[in-house]
Amino acid sequence: MSVYLTNKEVGHYRSEIEEEFQTIIRHPWFSGRKNARQWLFFRHCFSVLMGEASGDFECSAKQAIDYKYEINDRLQRYYLSFGKPIKFIFHLINDKKAGVVDYDEPDYPSCNGYKLRVSYNKALPDVLQEKKLLIETTIANAMDAEFEVYQQVPELDFTRLAEVFDIDGSAYKWIVNLAKKHKKRGWTLRNEMNPSTKRLIDIRIRDISEGRADARTSEYWLLMWWSIGEKKYIHTYKEMNRQQYYLIWKNNKWLVQENIYEKPKTSTPRRNIRSSQRG
């Protein structure tokens, strides 16, 4: 399993990435016809990625599509047949199909409508990647803990929430206050066959510094609140939203301190909506 590197990480691993690329293009599958147009296109994409070139490769849009498919096909076969573990993996992605992967990096270098992305093999983590994996796990656990709080209303239990959220942070306090508010309203998710659910779609670690981290996520939430008194669904939140997490290293573990949400498309927000200026 692999994860795309950010621009900052490409710079961090620059020498290793360049070494890996040179290993690939020296392989007979790529060097047998090293002046073939598709491999020149591949080299150009890599130069753009590393900031050594800019602009498009001289070819038509149709040729670029053909080059992209041949390069990715050859790379895939190369990785599947390779004997030793590979640390970095290359893959060409169409700008228009990059989707959520690039929503937080709109300026990632591209040429001819394609981006050469580099993945880090999660099976071979170094210190930086291990930190990222730990932060990703913390955020996934935070989502589970938050959803569990809502599922328990009208009962209130914040034990698990306090294990992954900073109890002095705004994110923890908001969830606690919201659960108490819904209890007072007589709302619950515990009615029979309640379809409420949540799913983590994508997560990108934006920055890791001494004791702090910043991450972006794309999440799907469906919360259908049932009125115990009126015996009917009274409030629905259904959103695919993007969120910004701020974490701190405290008590020898990562904790979510703040969580900022984009304004939802519906008029029934699940939690607080704050602008990035208040982050």
Walk me through this protein's architecture:
It is a single chain. With 279 residues, the chain is of the alpha+beta class. The protein has 2 domains: 2-121, no CATH class; 127-278, Nuclear Transport Factor 2, Chain: A (Roll), CATH 3.10.450. The protein is 38% helix and 28% strand. It has 8 helices and 8 strands, in the order βαααααββαααβββββ. The protein has helices at 7-12, 14-26, 28-31, 37-49, 61-81, 127-152, 159-164, 170-185, and strands at 2-4, 88-94, 114-121, 187-188, 197-209, 212-227, 232-250, 253-261. Strands 4, 5, 6, 7 and 8 form a 5-stranded antiparallel β-sheet that branches. α4 crosses α5 (61-81). The protein is elongated, with a radius of gyration of 23 Å.
